[in-house]
Fold these 4 entries.
Entry 1:
Amino acid sequence: MEILKVNQKVEVARRGEPEFYPALIQDVAGDAICITVPYLHGIPLILVPGDWVDVRVIECDATYHFTSMVLGRRRDKIPLYALSVPGEVKRVQRRHFVRLETLLEVRYAPLVDGDGEPVFRIARAIDISGGGMRLVTDQPLDVGDRLLLRFTLDLGERQLDFETLGRVVRRDEQEAAPVKTRYRYGIEFLGLSMHEQDQIVRYIFRRMAEQRKLR
């Protein structure tokens, strides 16, 4: 199965639970897929043989979903979970990744090792999708940096508060300003549930509909 390959990023959730935990495929054998122990917010997903998990693989044009059973734990240089090879993989168009240009206040804190409290700064998102956002800030960041993100979306009848992890996947051109230099970063959301992605998409299509009415 071409989408299941070594070093492929996957997201894993215990069946019936909303939180997806990022992991990496480490080996694809005839009878099993071995993945790293999934972590979310620094907490591992503890699985035992016989558990069923929902797995999704996010590609550029679609998301692939399948269900596997946990076969057990294996160890190479690091601990791994062995999952059964899926009998069926469903392909879902990446509707979640429709992008909306916007201006949204975001509080973010770079993650640091240790138990220190996160230090939040204010930034602006200039676009958003179900998979990430483009962030403008005056703080230099590196590709690969992980951030704790907090933002609020207005759905009209209510406001939804989000807190999620993000990873810097791209650094765009910097903007020279009179006082401060501003940087643009492509941020990938980590660990959003499908429900949370759906809520972001709902916000995006609502705003798009409002913009069409104003034309």
Entry 2:
Amino acid sequence: MARALADYDNLRKRSEAEKEVWTKFSAMGVLVKLLPVLDTMEAALKHLQDQGLYLAINDFKKVLADEGLTEISPKKGEPFDHELEEAIELVPGGKKNQIAETLLTGWRYVGGPVVRHAKVKVYGTVAKK
């Protein structure tokens, strides 16, 4: 009887843990679909400088943070990290393999996978043919 109760308790705990993981990662699909909306809002903010839009973007980012997402926003001069960033273009100047410019912010789950790599320009030399 004690063995059966222990087995049941282990099954219950394992089921709860699996449910928590499933819930966490099932939301990932919806969050990924919302990232382009945030990108559009940020692009609009560059042109409009609207305080209401600024507040909406901050609220949006807070929701993403509450769901476990963190920004990948490398700064100019930081070393290029292929695990977090995607090099879109090589540009002359600067130190080789350093970030020249961030074109699009990336996102990752805290302690988890990268949801979207940051799109960056990287200093380097282009081979001539």
Entry 3:
Amino acid sequence: MKSRKLKAFAIYHLPAILYATLIISLSSISNLHLPRFKHFEFDKVVHFIEYAIFAALVLRSFSHLSPRFRPRTVLLLSLFFMIVFAAGDESFQRLIPGRQPDTVDFVSDVLGALIILLFLWWRKKGRPADAVANP
């Protein structure tokens, strides 16, 4: 029984935890700047993709917290978590020399999370929460 729970933790929850750790680690790097291409800020695309991946991992994790949660509840919890995490991540950067919070980064984070969450929910609409987590 214990090894089954440990295996489930490693499969469903650990990837989201490790990815969150990676995001915070990257946010902790002083003076981290991505290249700009003329008037296009590449870092906004990176934020969008980074949080889309994270949101998919969070959705998968939250889908396995309780079998009683409906897919819509899991979706809303995941979105709420992503918004709070993105806000915390941007605020955290205020403490790092050479970094500062950026509202446009926050919006890119949330949009990346929102779009992938809606896509995954729409793709698995009406199926049990377990189906959302195992496409």
Entry 4:
Amino acid sequence: MFRNVTLLVVVAIAGCGPSARELRERTLSTLDTEADRWEGGKDFDSSATDAYGHAASASVRKGPLNYTLEVRSSGPDGLPKNNDDVVVTRTKRHGESSISEQAAKAAEAIASGATSGTIKGVKKGLGLGDEAKK
């Protein structure tokens, strides 16, 4: 009788841990909380640990208009970048757009060309400049 009770207690204790779904939800909550700390800069360090006991990783990628933060758990197997990973992302504008720089350069070139063309036109109209001498 004592053996049966002991076996029943051991089985009951072993089966009382969190489910896979609960562990995933806890990990997701941890990663979301961690990502919410990000202020939008190009650097971010994480010291978070997922519900599986593994350190989370974080990386920031710069795109043409935004920084994108990725906070990642390697999931239950602890192996990075496979299908059981839990990943949270955030995106924020960085204001350092290469598109903005290119647009500013193009506008400057257009303005410079328009000014140059206007001056040549005025000189021609007044009979001044190289073409008037011919």
